[in-house]
Design a protein that fits this description.
The chain has about 350 residues and is α/β, with parallel strands linked by helices. The strands form 3 sheets. A 10-stranded mixed beta sheet has the order 4-3-5-2-1-6-7-8-12-9, with helices on both faces. It has a two-stranded antiparallel sheet with strand order 10-11. Strands 13-14 form a two-stranded antiparallel sheet. The protein has 8 helices and 14 strands. It has helices at about 25-40, 105-115, 135-140, 140-150, 175-195, 265-280, 305, 320-325, and strands at about 5-10, 40-45, 65-70, 80, 95-100, 120-130, 155-165, 205-215, 225, 240, 295-300, 330-335, 350, 355. InterPro entries: SurE-like_Pase/nucleotidase, SurE-like_sf, TTL.
């Protein structure tokens, strides 16, 4: 007996549809194609605004509210929002749900609260506006986080990301349509293949799929697709101080006044030097600018080496290597932190696995 048509929840971390100048231009054409090309029963539940870089987080102290959205227009950017569901009007294809929550929240609420228990067969998170190759991106990704959240509720999941290979500029419509078509093909094949393995140690919880938006996606012979492993990468600074060194301020005199020849930076140095002498250690100092302006930081990631890795750093068989060579990567992953070997050394004495303190 053949399986019934899959009931699929599409979510993302980029939010409701935007045009190509915005941050969520991919979810509308892809969700429409799943229904039109594959005939799947598609429900869309996405954050009401962009929620990128939040991983698999939940906001547990807030009440999550939502609205129903009936997208129309060529990009899905038009349409009516309502507090209660209603029948579709002329020109409307489907009903979406916008939740004021994280991607993982959207996945969990869709699976357990919006639709009858046990009715959802598959969660597809994405297509993300940008790649999610390698551990540094994947561990931060709201797209992969939502897929992980679904898998922890025993629902098969696909995390789909479309790499912007020429910077953050709108890709040609032909690339987008090519990505839509091949992503539907891959989703269909993964659905037929399945997630369960005989050996639970090698089970698959999530397939992370990365599609490069570049000429190879519409090449005459079709794009190349590889099974891959996830490249192991790291990042450095993600936040940047907004502090600007102010001009010197002349303060009034008085018992607590700062001597005219001592700046706040010099005061800080003297105070920390005194603390260091008292503790018998050299004191760690903050950056000078923090003594002269309030602490304020903005998200400004320094991720050049992640976006443009050197050829020497690309290891064949990884998702990074495939994407940077114009191929699609499909990476099977588990919803678990990888175990590491126990360190051995004189600092910790053990009886087998038991520490001796």
């Amino acid at each position: 007996m053949s399986r019934r048509t899959p009931r699929v929840v599409v979510t993302n971390d980029d939010g409701p549809p935007t045009d190509l100048s915005g941050h969520s231009p991919f979810v509308y054409p892809f969700a429409c194609a799943l229904a039109e090309q594959l005939g799947w029963d598609v429900k869309v539940v996405v954050p009401s605004s962009q929620r990128s870089w939040v991983g698999k987080s939940y906001a547990i102290t807030q009440v999550t509210t939502g609205r129903y959205f009936y997208p129309t227009g060529p990009n899905g950017t038009d349409g009516e929002q309502c507090e209660l569901p209603r029948p579709l009007k002329e020109g409307e294809k489907t009903e979406w749900v916008l939740l004021d929550g994280t991607p993982a929240t959207c996945a969990n609420i869709a699976i357990h609260s919006l639709y009858p228990p046990g009715s959802i067969d598959l969660v597809i998170s994405g297509p993300n506006f940008g790649r999610n190759t390698s551990t540094a991106f994947a561990l931060s990704s709201g797209t992969i986080g939502a897929a992980m959240a679904a898998s922890l509720s025993h629902i098969p999941a696909i995390a789909l990301s479309w790499g912007l290979m020429e910077g953050y500029k709108p890709p040609p419509q032909s690339f987008i349509q090519g990505a839509v078509d091949v992503s539907c093909q891959i989703a269909s094949k993964l659905w037929d293949l399945g997630w369960e393995q005989a050996d639970s140690e090698h089970r698959v919880d999530v397939y992370s799929v990365n599609v490069p938006l570049m000429p190879s996606i519409i090449s005459k012979g079709g794009p190349t697709v590889y099974w891959t492993e996830m490249a192991k990468t790291k990042y450095q600074r993600l936040f940047k101080s907004t502090a600007k060194i102010p001009a010197p301020v002349v303060k009034d005199g008085g018992p607590a006044a700062v001597p005219a020849d001592k700046s706040s930076v010099e005061q800080g140095k003297e105070q920390e030097a005194a603390e260091g002498q008292a503790s018998g250690a050299e004191a760690l100092r903050m950056v000078d600018s923090h003594y002269q302006a309030p602490l304020r930081f903005v998200f400004a990631p320094d991720i050049g080496p992640l976006v443009n890795p050197s050829p020497a750093s690309l290891q064949e068989g990884t998702d990074n290597h495939a994407l940077m060579h114009g191929a699609i990567s499909v990476t099977p992953i588990q919803a678990a932190f990888a175990s590491a070997d126990f360190p051995r050394g004189k600092a910790i004495e053990t009886d087998g696995l038991k520490w001796r303190l």
